[in-house]
Target: M23 family metallopeptidase
Amino acid sequence: MSPVFSFLCARPGRVLRRAVALTLALAAVQSAAWAAPRWDAPAEVSQGRAFVVRATDTQPFTASVVWRDKTIPLAVTEHADGWEGRVMLAVPIDAKGSLNLTLKDSEGARTVKVEALSVPWHEDRLTVPPQYVTPPAEVQARIKRDGEHNARVLASMRPEAEWTLPLYRPVKGSISGPFGGRRVFNGQPRAPHKGTDMRGPTGTPAHAVAAGTVVLAEPQYYSGNVVMVDHGQGVISMYAHLSAFDVKVGDRVERGQIVGKVGATGRVTGPHLHLGLMVQGVAVDAMPLYAEPLRVVGGPTPEDKIARPAPQNKAAAPGPAGTKS
Model:
Protein backbone atom coordinates (compact mmCIF):
# COMPACT_ATOMS: atom_id res chain seq x y z
CA MET A 1 0.00 0.00 0.00
CA SER A 2 1.39 3.36 -0.98
CA PRO A 3 2.10 5.66 2.01
CA VAL A 4 0.20 8.45 0.28
CA PHE A 5 -3.07 6.77 1.17
CA SER A 6 -2.27 7.13 4.86
CA PHE A 7 -2.96 10.82 4.42
CA LEU A 8 -5.92 10.79 2.04
CA CYS A 9 -7.94 13.96 1.85
CA ALA A 10 -5.62 16.07 3.97
CA ARG A 11 -4.73 19.55 2.72
CA PRO A 12 -1.76 19.39 0.27
CA GLY A 13 1.46 20.89 1.57
CA ARG A 14 0.55 20.43 5.22
CA VAL A 15 0.04 16.69 5.56
CA LEU A 16 3.66 15.58 5.92
CA ARG A 17 4.45 18.40 8.33
CA ARG A 18 1.39 17.62 10.43
CA ALA A 19 2.09 13.86 10.33
CA VAL A 20 5.60 14.42 11.62
CA ALA A 21 4.25 16.79 14.28
CA LEU A 22 1.72 14.15 15.35
CA THR A 23 4.42 11.51 15.68
CA LEU A 24 6.62 13.85 17.73
CA ALA A 25 3.69 14.84 19.94
CA LEU A 26 2.86 11.21 20.63
CA ALA A 27 6.47 10.49 21.52
CA ALA A 28 6.68 13.54 23.78
CA VAL A 29 3.55 12.68 25.73
CA GLN A 30 4.12 8.97 26.07
CA SER A 31 7.94 9.24 26.33
CA ALA A 32 9.85 5.99 25.98
CA ALA A 33 6.76 3.92 26.71
CA TRP A 34 5.23 5.09 23.40
CA ALA A 35 8.21 3.99 21.31
CA ALA A 36 6.22 1.23 19.62
CA PRO A 37 4.18 1.05 17.54
CA ARG A 38 4.60 4.22 15.49
CA TRP A 39 1.28 5.82 14.54
CA ASP A 40 0.45 7.85 11.41
CA ALA A 41 -2.79 9.82 11.01
CA PRO A 42 -3.81 13.02 9.20
CA ALA A 43 -4.49 16.25 11.06
CA GLU A 44 -7.10 17.50 8.54
CA VAL A 45 -9.69 15.67 6.43
CA SER A 46 -12.34 17.11 4.12
CA GLN A 47 -16.04 16.49 4.76
CA GLY A 48 -17.27 13.29 3.12
CA ARG A 49 -13.80 11.78 2.84
CA ALA A 50 -12.19 8.55 4.01
CA PHE A 51 -8.76 8.40 5.57
CA VAL A 52 -6.39 5.70 6.76
CA VAL A 53 -4.73 5.41 10.16
CA ARG A 54 -1.61 3.23 10.28
CA ALA A 55 0.61 1.83 13.01
CA THR A 56 3.94 0.07 12.43
CA ASP A 57 6.34 -1.92 14.57
CA THR A 58 9.18 -4.40 14.19
CA GLN A 59 7.20 -7.08 16.03
CA PRO A 60 3.57 -8.27 16.19
CA PHE A 61 1.18 -6.02 18.11
CA THR A 62 -2.48 -5.30 18.73
CA ALA A 63 -3.99 -1.84 18.52
CA SER A 64 -7.30 -0.09 18.01
CA VAL A 65 -8.78 3.34 17.49
CA VAL A 66 -11.84 5.06 18.91
CA TRP A 67 -13.58 7.18 16.29
CA ARG A 68 -17.02 8.74 16.62
CA ASP A 69 -17.69 6.67 19.78
CA LYS A 70 -16.84 3.38 18.06
CA THR A 71 -13.83 1.20 18.91
CA ILE A 72 -12.31 -0.41 15.82
CA PRO A 73 -9.33 -2.81 15.91
CA LEU A 74 -6.52 -2.35 13.42
CA ALA A 75 -5.92 -5.18 10.95
CA VAL A 76 -2.27 -6.12 11.54
CA THR A 77 -0.23 -7.94 8.89
CA GLU A 78 3.43 -8.82 8.45
CA HIS A 79 5.59 -7.11 5.83
CA ALA A 80 9.21 -7.44 4.77
CA ASP A 81 10.33 -4.67 7.11
CA GLY A 82 8.05 -5.39 10.06
CA TRP A 83 4.37 -5.32 11.03
CA GLU A 84 1.70 -2.85 9.95
CA GLY A 85 -1.78 -2.21 11.29
CA ARG A 86 -4.35 -0.17 9.38
CA VAL A 87 -7.93 0.98 9.56
CA MET A 88 -10.05 3.12 7.26
CA LEU A 89 -12.20 5.81 8.88
CA ALA A 90 -14.59 8.47 7.57
CA VAL A 91 -15.49 12.10 8.17
CA PRO A 92 -19.26 12.58 7.66
CA ILE A 93 -20.47 14.93 4.96
CA ASP A 94 -21.90 17.32 7.57
CA ALA A 95 -19.04 17.14 10.11
CA LYS A 96 -17.74 20.44 11.50
CA GLY A 97 -14.83 21.49 13.69
CA SER A 98 -12.39 19.14 15.41
CA LEU A 99 -13.11 15.44 15.88
CA ASN A 100 -11.45 13.23 18.49
CA LEU A 101 -9.35 10.26 17.36
CA THR A 102 -8.06 7.99 20.13
CA LEU A 103 -5.10 5.72 19.38
CA LYS A 104 -4.78 2.69 21.68
CA ASP A 105 -2.15 -0.03 22.01
CA SER A 106 -0.58 -2.11 24.78
CA GLU A 107 1.28 0.93 26.12
CA GLY A 108 -1.75 3.18 26.59
CA ALA A 109 -4.00 5.62 24.76
CA ARG A 110 -3.59 9.04 23.19
CA THR A 111 -6.33 11.31 21.79
CA VAL A 112 -5.51 13.62 18.90
CA LYS A 113 -7.65 16.03 16.89
CA VAL A 114 -8.72 15.66 13.27
CA GLU A 115 -10.05 18.88 11.74
CA ALA A 116 -13.05 18.51 9.40
CA LEU A 117 -12.49 20.82 6.43
CA SER A 118 -15.58 22.41 4.85
CA VAL A 119 -16.39 21.59 1.21
CA PRO A 120 -18.40 23.83 -1.20
CA TRP A 121 -20.98 21.23 -2.19
CA HIS A 122 -22.74 21.89 -5.47
CA GLU A 123 -26.48 21.57 -6.18
CA ASP A 124 -28.14 19.26 -8.72
CA ARG A 125 -31.67 19.88 -10.01
CA LEU A 126 -33.16 16.74 -11.54
CA THR A 127 -36.46 15.70 -13.09
CA VAL A 128 -37.67 12.16 -12.42
CA PRO A 129 -41.07 10.39 -12.53
CA PRO A 130 -43.35 11.77 -9.77
CA GLN A 131 -43.56 8.42 -7.93
CA TYR A 132 -39.85 8.71 -7.08
CA VAL A 133 -40.35 12.09 -5.40
CA THR A 134 -43.64 11.41 -3.62
CA PRO A 135 -43.95 7.61 -3.49
CA PRO A 136 -47.51 6.24 -3.45
CA ALA A 137 -48.82 4.62 -0.29
CA GLU A 138 -48.58 1.09 -1.69
CA VAL A 139 -44.77 1.26 -1.92
CA GLN A 140 -44.08 2.86 1.47
CA ALA A 141 -43.71 -0.51 3.19
CA ARG A 142 -41.23 -1.64 0.53
CA ILE A 143 -39.16 1.52 0.95
CA LYS A 144 -39.09 0.97 4.71
CA ARG A 145 -37.96 -2.65 4.28
CA ASP A 146 -35.22 -1.56 1.87
CA GLY A 147 -33.92 0.97 4.39
CA GLU A 148 -34.00 -1.44 7.31
CA HIS A 149 -32.24 -4.15 5.29
CA ASN A 150 -29.53 -1.75 4.16
CA ALA A 151 -29.00 -0.56 7.74
CA ARG A 152 -28.46 -4.13 8.95
CA VAL A 153 -25.96 -4.81 6.18
CA LEU A 154 -24.03 -1.60 6.81
CA ALA A 155 -23.87 -2.32 10.55
CA SER A 156 -21.93 -5.54 9.98
CA MET A 157 -18.25 -5.58 10.93
CA ARG A 158 -15.69 -8.22 9.95
CA PRO A 159 -12.25 -7.70 11.51
CA GLU A 160 -10.41 -8.78 8.35
CA ALA A 161 -9.39 -5.93 6.04
CA GLU A 162 -9.71 -7.08 2.42
CA TRP A 163 -9.79 -3.57 0.96
CA THR A 164 -6.67 -2.38 -0.81
CA LEU A 165 -5.71 1.00 -2.22
CA PRO A 166 -5.97 2.33 -4.80
CA LEU A 167 -9.48 1.08 -5.57
CA TYR A 168 -10.28 -0.63 -8.86
CA ARG A 169 -12.25 1.56 -11.25
CA PRO A 170 -15.72 -0.04 -11.61
CA VAL A 171 -16.49 1.38 -15.09
CA LYS A 172 -14.49 3.46 -17.55
CA GLY A 173 -17.12 6.19 -17.97
CA SER A 174 -16.65 9.75 -16.77
CA ILE A 175 -18.52 11.20 -13.78
CA SER A 176 -21.93 12.74 -14.38
CA GLY A 177 -22.91 13.19 -10.73
CA PRO A 178 -20.15 13.79 -8.14
CA PHE A 179 -20.50 12.84 -4.49
CA GLY A 180 -22.08 15.31 -2.09
CA GLY A 181 -24.33 17.30 -4.40
CA ARG A 182 -27.44 18.77 -2.80
CA ARG A 183 -30.27 17.06 -4.67
CA VAL A 184 -33.46 18.80 -5.77
CA PHE A 185 -35.92 16.39 -7.43
CA ASN A 186 -38.77 18.00 -9.36
CA GLY A 187 -38.23 21.20 -7.37
CA GLN A 188 -38.23 19.46 -3.98
CA PRO A 189 -35.00 19.37 -1.90
CA ARG A 190 -33.80 15.92 -0.85
CA ALA A 191 -30.77 14.43 0.90
CA PRO A 192 -27.28 15.00 -0.53
CA HIS A 193 -25.97 12.59 -3.15
CA LYS A 194 -24.09 9.94 -1.18
CA GLY A 195 -22.39 8.26 -4.10
CA THR A 196 -20.83 8.92 -7.49
CA ASP A 197 -22.68 8.54 -10.79
CA MET A 198 -20.48 7.12 -13.55
CA ARG A 199 -21.51 7.14 -17.21
CA GLY A 200 -21.99 3.88 -19.07
CA PRO A 201 -24.49 2.41 -21.55
CA THR A 202 -26.84 -0.36 -20.45
CA GLY A 203 -25.01 -3.67 -20.29
CA THR A 204 -21.58 -2.25 -19.46
CA PRO A 205 -19.82 -4.54 -16.93
CA ALA A 206 -19.53 -3.10 -13.41
CA HIS A 207 -16.44 -4.28 -11.50
CA ALA A 208 -15.80 -4.69 -7.77
CA VAL A 209 -13.54 -1.94 -6.40
CA ALA A 210 -11.80 -4.41 -4.06
CA ALA A 211 -11.98 -8.01 -2.90
CA GLY A 212 -14.77 -9.01 -0.55
CA THR A 213 -18.01 -10.91 -0.02
CA VAL A 214 -21.39 -10.08 -1.54
CA VAL A 215 -23.77 -9.19 1.29
CA LEU A 216 -26.70 -7.81 -0.73
CA ALA A 217 -27.98 -8.40 -4.27
CA GLU A 218 -31.61 -7.46 -4.84
CA PRO A 219 -34.00 -4.99 -6.50
CA GLN A 220 -34.90 -1.93 -4.39
CA TYR A 221 -37.29 0.95 -4.99
CA TYR A 222 -34.86 3.87 -5.23
CA SER A 223 -31.60 2.06 -6.01
CA GLY A 224 -33.04 -0.38 -8.53
CA ASN A 225 -31.01 -3.57 -8.85
CA VAL A 226 -28.26 -3.11 -6.28
CA VAL A 227 -25.24 -5.09 -5.10
CA MET A 228 -23.24 -4.50 -1.92
CA VAL A 229 -19.80 -6.00 -1.31
CA ASP A 230 -18.30 -6.19 2.19
CA HIS A 231 -14.53 -5.55 2.06
CA GLY A 232 -14.06 -6.06 5.79
CA GLN A 233 -13.33 -3.72 8.68
CA GLY A 234 -16.55 -1.74 8.04
CA VAL A 235 -15.78 -0.89 4.38
CA ILE A 236 -18.67 -1.68 2.00
CA SER A 237 -19.13 -0.76 -1.68
CA MET A 238 -22.49 -0.37 -3.43
CA TYR A 239 -23.36 -0.72 -7.14
CA ALA A 240 -26.84 0.58 -7.97
CA HIS A 241 -29.27 0.85 -10.92
CA LEU A 242 -27.92 -2.35 -12.50
CA SER A 243 -29.65 -3.99 -15.45
CA ALA A 244 -28.43 -7.46 -14.40
CA PHE A 245 -26.75 -9.28 -11.52
CA ASP A 246 -23.58 -11.32 -11.97
CA VAL A 247 -23.27 -12.33 -8.31
CA LYS A 248 -25.47 -13.48 -5.44
CA VAL A 249 -25.35 -13.07 -1.67
CA GLY A 250 -22.50 -15.07 -0.18
CA ASP A 251 -20.31 -15.02 -3.28
CA ARG A 252 -16.64 -14.25 -2.83
CA VAL A 253 -15.41 -11.63 -5.34
CA GLU A 254 -11.93 -10.49 -6.25
CA ARG A 255 -10.77 -6.97 -7.02
CA GLY A 256 -11.96 -6.11 -10.53
CA GLN A 257 -14.45 -8.98 -10.79
CA ILE A 258 -17.75 -8.22 -12.58
CA VAL A 259 -20.64 -7.91 -10.11
CA GLY A 260 -23.36 -6.75 -12.52
CA LYS A 261 -24.21 -4.73 -15.62
CA VAL A 262 -24.89 -0.99 -15.83
CA GLY A 263 -28.57 -0.13 -16.20
CA ALA A 264 -31.34 2.37 -15.50
CA THR A 265 -33.41 0.70 -12.77
CA GLY A 266 -34.82 2.64 -9.82
CA ARG A 267 -34.79 6.45 -9.55
CA VAL A 268 -32.66 7.55 -12.49
CA THR A 269 -32.57 9.95 -15.43
CA GLY A 270 -30.80 7.41 -17.66
CA PRO A 271 -28.39 4.45 -17.66
CA HIS A 272 -25.33 4.78 -15.43
CA LEU A 273 -23.62 3.22 -12.41
CA HIS A 274 -24.16 4.72 -8.98
CA LEU A 275 -21.12 3.78 -6.92
CA GLY A 276 -21.40 4.15 -3.17
CA LEU A 277 -18.69 3.62 -0.59
CA MET A 278 -19.56 3.31 3.09
CA VAL A 279 -16.89 3.36 5.79
CA GLN A 280 -18.03 2.50 9.32
CA GLY A 281 -21.58 3.20 8.12
CA VAL A 282 -20.71 6.66 6.76
CA ALA A 283 -21.03 7.45 3.04
CA VAL A 284 -17.80 8.87 1.59
CA ASP A 285 -16.48 10.07 -1.74
CA ALA A 286 -14.68 7.14 -3.36
CA MET A 287 -12.98 9.23 -6.04
CA PRO A 288 -9.87 10.25 -4.02
CA LEU A 289 -9.16 6.55 -3.47
CA TYR A 290 -8.38 5.87 -7.12
CA ALA A 291 -4.87 5.97 -8.56
CA GLU A 292 -5.86 8.69 -11.05
CA PRO A 293 -8.62 11.34 -10.90
CA LEU A 294 -11.74 10.62 -12.97
CA ARG A 295 -13.08 13.26 -15.33
CA VAL A 296 -16.31 15.08 -14.45
CA VAL A 297 -18.59 15.69 -17.43
CA GLY A 298 -18.64 19.40 -18.20
CA GLY A 299 -16.26 20.33 -15.40
CA PRO A 300 -12.94 19.74 -13.64
CA THR A 301 -11.90 16.54 -11.93
CA PRO A 302 -13.54 15.71 -8.59
CA GLU A 303 -10.23 16.54 -6.88
CA ASP A 304 -10.38 20.08 -8.26
CA LYS A 305 -14.11 20.49 -7.90
CA ILE A 306 -15.02 19.29 -4.44
CA ALA A 307 -11.92 18.31 -2.51
CA ARG A 308 -10.74 21.71 -1.34
CA PRO A 309 -11.88 23.72 1.68
CA ALA A 310 -14.77 26.09 1.08
CA PRO A 311 -13.63 29.62 0.15
CA GLN A 312 -14.87 32.37 2.43
CA ASN A 313 -17.91 34.36 1.26
CA LYS A 314 -18.15 32.51 -2.05
CA ALA A 315 -21.07 30.55 -3.41
CA ALA A 316 -20.65 26.90 -4.37
CA ALA A 317 -20.19 26.21 -8.05
CA PRO A 318 -23.09 24.52 -9.86
CA GLY A 319 -22.78 20.79 -10.53
CA PRO A 320 -22.14 19.39 -13.99
CA ALA A 321 -24.92 18.16 -16.21
CA GLY A 322 -25.30 14.48 -17.04
CA THR A 323 -27.03 11.23 -16.20
CA LYS A 324 -27.67 10.95 -12.48
CA SER A 325 -29.60 9.18 -9.77
